[in-house]
Design brief:
The structure holds 2 protein chains of 2 kinds. By secondary structure, chain A is an all-alpha fold. Chain A has 2 domains: 35 residues; 231 residues, MetI-like fold (Orthogonal Bundle). Chain A is built from 14 helices and 2 strands. The longest helix of chain A has 32 residues. By secondary structure, chain B is of the alpha+beta class. Chain B folds into 2 domains: 150 residues, 3-Layer(aba) Sandwich (D-Maltodextrin-Binding Protein, domain 2), CATH 3.40.190; 195 residues, D-Maltodextrin-Binding Protein, domain 2, CATH 3.40.190. A 5-stranded mixed beta sheet of chain B has the order 2-1-3-14-6. In chain B, strands 7, 8, 11, 12 and 13 form a 5-stranded mixed beta sheet that branches. In chain B, helix 10 crosses helix 11. The radius of gyration of chain B is 24 Å and the shape is globular. The chains are: A mainly alpha, B alpha+beta. Chains A and B meet through helix 13 of A and helix 4, helix 5 and helix 19 of B.
Chain lengths: 314, 434
């Protein structure tokens, strides 16, 4: 695509200069290869090579002890992954975290977008305040959340107790650590979903809503049968962005629990990090990474296909 | 160095020695004074962890540079960062590290297998390279065991620490309780003093998975268990189950809420703000707890041997990698850093010394501000066992797996099921190792 755009631009540039047809054709040919070359090189160096190398690594047994001559073991790493209970548990946790965070963030983002789609006094200020979590550094934010959620002297439990509610263990319990992390992620990223949906809302045409209002449709009806279907492509894009991010969440988990208590918040990314950089089982970590990469890729492909369908339907 | 140049220099040196002994005063040859300036002009690169001992030696460093004319670049890191950096550099066959630090009880077997250590016997036994005052025999057996892997002396210990019990004497006294020595007594004391409504807990300790396995080892061994039996994991034996059960119950019933995420930073915060009665930690913790600037309980704290009497021992050891560019100069630095003089100076700052002489020196015994700490440390070092971790290569995954059982025990889950699952994973881990 980039090729043809660049080619066309050059074409018009050259024809404006009224050059000969043959040199024009040659110029177009060279340009169609030359101009995208930097982009192709960047993609090759930054993407194709690392991915290819990871796949190559995943077929070897590589550790600090045989770095000079890694042993080719075919698909043994993948076979071991099939039997690895810690890997399976990490996979489940990743799915749980992603689904939980997505559901909350889209619901909240939509709600907030509806709110800010109305005009009210101080809307700009409130909207800016709502966007603040998004710009916080995840690691710094993790440390602050740990202070807030500390079960002995944190503010969160103090508030609960003042309201007459029982104190919670938050991050300090295997049962509540993932829901708590989902809440933290939701706090930070719902504003992004809100921003995207709000942009979608402002772009919607007014006529259908006016027509619906004349026909006596209730607020709920015009939301459910007009706005929501028209917003679906936007929501799909938000879902895609957030699902990829949620699947590979690392910072807030590492910043708070490092995958703990025990393995209770060890998602795929955490497990792969440990396998690679703590245990130095580089080949095995690469195999897990290839599986993870495939997973992220298929989820995004699935969402792209779904989005095309909704667009086609609309 | 070219052979001809080497011959020329040797002859010149010989001549210099001859002239000096013929000439003014025969100091070198007769008194056998050690030549500290032999490697003048060398620069050493040292990779080392951040510990209390590190702060001490960095302060003393200019004295070494003046004595020897050797420059020392000491790069210090937080423990885990050091491990990662070292592993990456040593894997890459880096040839500019002269000295590195390791905790043999954590990574000794791995580094030994990878060939990253060299034995130091040749240097110690060479009178031209080792100062006669060095006195290797002065190091305690326990300290030397921390520098020995598979029978090889792979370094010199800088300090040797043991786990101790830390307690609040005024609170025990007020309740009319004795300092506990057995597991039953400890539980009884913790139960009697526990007062969660007022944010005061009978028992402070680590519950954070892998970070808890070292302190837990004293209970495992104290109850008659072991990490491994005949080279196989022994995590689901009745003794081990009893140990997990005790550890879990103590933290669940008499510990702070959410202890499953507590490690050193959380515990030091709790204890120094006066929220705990009993705690077991490495002896080095005393330096922080006794410092009035960092601790609110500095004037009301005392020390004892851990319940069950099986504390762990550990320490950081200075080693020279095989392709160190300045092996001899590196040895100069190691023997200076771990000399009697420096060991005593560090001891006076509260750092547990690896040398017997430092503990017995009148400079220390007559000025000891905390005889209770000294007594507890000395007895603990005598009792200490080198089983903070199992003697295997892949210590880190082992600790993570055992840490999960500890978390399950604290949360009151099915310990037997959890220990059996861990046992299976550890068997698989050891199978990979062989």
């Amino acid at each position: 695509m980039a090729q043809s755009v660049f080619g066309r631009q050059l074409n018009s540039f050259i024809s404006a200069r009224r050059l000969k047809t043959s040199s024009l054709r040659r110029g177009r040919l060279i340009a169609s290869w030359l101009f995208p070359l930097p982009a192709i090189l960047v993609v090759a160096v930054m993407l194709a090579y690392p991915v290819g190398y990871t796949v190559w690594l995943s077929l070897h047994d590589l550790s600090p002890f045989n770095l000079e001559n890694p042993e080719w073991i075919g698909t043994e790493n993948y076979a071991a992954l099939l039997k690895d209970t810690r890997f399976h548990a990490a996979l489940e946790r990743t799915a749980y975290f992603t689904l939980g965070a997505l559901a909350l963030q889209v619901a909240l983002g939509l709600g907030m977008a509806l709110l800010f789609n109305h005009n009210f006094v101080g809307r700009g200020v409130v909207r800016t305040l709502f966007l603040l979590p998004m710009v916080a550094t995840p690691v710094a934010m993790s440390l602050i959340w740990m202070l807030i959620l500390n079960p002995v002297d944190g503010v969160a439990n103090w508030i609960l107790e003042t309201l007459g509610l029982p104190p919670q263990l938050w991050l300090n319990s295997a049962d509540s650590v993932l829901p708590t992390l989902i809440l933290m992620d939701t706090w930070q990223w719902s504003p992004l979903v809100m921003l995207m949906i709000l942009a979608g809302m402002t772009a919607l045409p007014h006529e259908p809503f006016e027509a619906a209002a004349i026909d006596g449709a209730s607020w709920w009806q015009s939301f459910r049968f007009l706005m929501l279907p028209m917003l679906r492509p936007t929501i799909m894009v938000a879902l895609m962005f957030r699902s990829i991010d949620c699947l590979k969440t690392f910072d807030i988990i590492y910043g708070t629990t490092q995958g703990g208590p025990g393995f209770a918040s060890e998602t795929l990314n955490l497990y792969i990090y440990k396998t690679g950089f703590d245990y130095f089982r580089l080949g095995y970590a690469a195999a897990a990474l290839v599986v993870f990469f495939t997973l992220v890729l298929s989820v995004s492909l699935l969402l792209i296909i779904l989005r095309r369908r909704t667009e086609a339907a609309a | 160095m070219k052979p001809r140049l080497a011959v020329f220099l040797s002859v010149m040196m010989l001549l210099a020695v001859m002239f000096s002994s013929v000439g003014v005063s025969p100091s070198l040859a007769q008194e056998g004074e050690f030549d500290w300036r032999r490697y003048e002009g060398t620069t050493l690169r040292v990779l080392w962890p951040n510990t209390a001992w590190t702060d001490f030696i960095l302060e003393e460093l200019p004295a070494f540079e003046e004595l020897t004319g050797i420059d020392v670049n000491m790069e210090t890191f937080v423990e885990d960062q050091l491990r990662q950096k070292l592993t990456v550099e040593l894997i890459a066959g880096s040839d500019d590290i002269d000295i590195f630090g390791s905790m043999t009880i954590q990574e000794g077997f791995k580094y030994h297998q990878a060939g990253w250590y060299t034995t130091l016997d040749d240097l110690i036994n060479d009178p031209t390279l080792t100062n006669p005052d060095f006195d290797f025999e002065d190091f305690s057996d326990g300290a030397i065991s921390l520098a020995t892997v598979n029978g090889d002396l792979i370094g010199i210990p800088t300090y040797s620490d043991a786990q101790i019990m830390i307690y609040r004497p005024s609170i025990l006294e007020a309740a009319g309780l004795e300092v506990p020595t057995t597991f039953e007594e400890t539980e009884a004391v913790a139960a009697a003093l526990n007062d969660p409504d007022n944010d005061f807990y009978g028992w402070i300790n680590r519950g954070k998975g892998a970070a808890a396995t070292s302190v837990f080892s004293s209970v495992l061994y104290g109850m008659g268990g072991a990490w491994t039996v005949d080279g196989q994991p022994a995590i689901n034996t009745p003794e081990a189950i009893a140990a997990f059960d005790w550890w879990g119950r103590m933290l669940r019933e008499y510990g702070p809420p959410g202890a499953v995420n507590n490690s050193w930073p959380e515990n030091v915060q709790l204890f120094t703000s006066g929220k705990g009665a009993l705690w077991t930690e490495s002896g080095q913790a005393a330096a922080t707890i006794l410092d009035p600037e960092q601790s609110g309980v500095a004037d009301d704290v005392s020390f004892a041997v851990v319940p069950g009497g099986k504390p762990y021992a550990y320490g950081w050891v200075m080693s020279i990698p095989p392709n160190a560019p300045n092996r001899e100069a590196a040895w100069y630095f190691i023997q200076w850093a771990t000399s009697k003089e420096n060991s005593l100076k560090a001891k006076l700052l509260g750092i547990p010394a690896p040398r017997t002489s430092s503990w017995e020196d009148p400079a220390f015994t007559e000025n000891d501000p905390h005889p209770d700490l000294t007594a507890a440390m000395r007895e603990s070092l005598q009792l200490a066992m080198p089983y903070m971790n199992p003697h295997i290569v892949n210590v880190q995954p082992w600790r993570d797996v055992v840490g999960q059982v500890i978390v399950d025990a604290i949360e009151g889950k099915d310990i037997v099921a959890s220990a059996n699952a861990a046992q299976a994973q550890l068997e698989e881990l050891l199978k990979q190792e062989q």
